[in-house]
Amino acid sequence: MRAKEMDKISHILCGNKVDLVDEREVSMEEGLQLANSWECGYFEVSVKNKVNVEESVESVVRKVHQEVCSVFKGKNAYDRKKGGCITL
After folding, report:
1. Homologous superfamily of 3-71 in CATH?
2. How do the domains of the chain map onto residue ranges?
3. Is pTM beyond 0.85 here?
């Protein structure tokens, strides 16, 4: 994919270690406000307790897939002359 065809980078903001409630430094509201200003999703995650880890990754993959599909809409994803294939 050419950079000029994709003007945005898919990203999310994750508040990590939500299992450590007593040590919280950023409120959920602050995280949401920052994510809104960055125009991205927000997830509160805990790798230790497996909270929202898969959901956050799946969110980015879905967003990338949507953006790739919009770039290649009406085009053949595999061009024999140039080679290459897109699979998500």
Report:
1. P-loop containing nucleotide triphosphate hydrolases (3.40.50.300)
2. 3-71
3. no
Locate tokens 């967003």: which residue? Answer: 63
22-72 tens-digit pLDDT: 999 999 999 999 999 998 999 999 999 999 999 999 999 998 888 878 777
SS (H, E, C) the chain: CCHHHCCCCCCEEEECCCCCHHHCCCCHHHHHHHHHHCCCEEEECECCCCECHHHHHHHHHHHHHHHHHHHCCCCCCCCCCCCCCCCC
